[in-house]
Amino acid sequence: MPFCEQLVQAGRELLGSGLTVETWGNISCRDPVTGNVYLTPSAMAYDRCTAADMVVFAADGTQIDGRRRPSVEAAMHLSVYRARGDVQAILHTHRVYSTVFGCLGEKIPPIIDEAAQALGGPVPVTAYALPGSEQLARNCVDALGALGMACLLRSHGAVCCGVDMAGTFKTARVLEMTAQIYYMARTIGTPEVLPPDKVDWMRDFALNRYRQ
After folding, report:
1. Among 19, 155, 165, 186, whose Cα sits 20 to 30 Å from the Cα of 25?
2. Annotated catalytic residue, options 5, 13, 22, 73
3. Is the pLDDT of residue 212 over 80?
4. Domain of 35?
């Protein structure tokens, strides 16, 4: 599927899945051959976007195609791609439970097997920075580090990554499910965090052995 069409489909899935509301959030993907980055436009309804509305950047960050203004978080997406060669798709979501912990400044620990497999270790929270700022981009890159697949933006949703668009949506769904379970478990007790060695085993299993 052409990359612009992939973003159109992803935008409708993002909205339909409840991972964001209205026009908030943003989506990108990268062509692993050319390094070009494809990004959703700013302030446009996902269910009305077409392939012609998408914006394209070269690997160096130069806009090379698109008649629309890109998402205000273009710098964040481009910075993550520059830092992480393994990431080929990014979702910035605005889901309720993960945002709760972002507002509290609390990381989400791996308390369920699915989180260990899809997210690895604890999902960190960035320091606060204004939307669309270079500081927010730097904070996001720092929080993800070399291996992280998700981070919480302080008071501003979450950033989820993957090796492809399907993997990125999986990251986002598992993050929100884990956040909700963690929230609910804390209302009646103290959730037990999975041991680091077990988390490492399950993450390796998911990456290297859980397939047909």
Report:
1. 186
2. 73
3. no
4. 3-208
Instruction: Give yes or no for residue 147 having a pLDDT over 90.
Output: yes
pLDDT at 17 over 90: no
Residue 54 to residues 31, 141, 153, 209: CA-CA distances in angstroms? 14, 24, 24, 36
Q: How many helices (H) and strands (E) does the chain have?
A: 7, 7
The domain that contains 82 carries what CATH number? 3.40.225.10
CB 95 within 8 A of CB 19: yes
Q: What angle do CA 11, 46, 91 make, to 5 degrees?
A: 35
Q: What percent of the chain is predicted at pLDDT more than 90?
A: 87
Phi, psi of 13 (to 5 degrees): -70, -40
First to last CA, the chain: 23
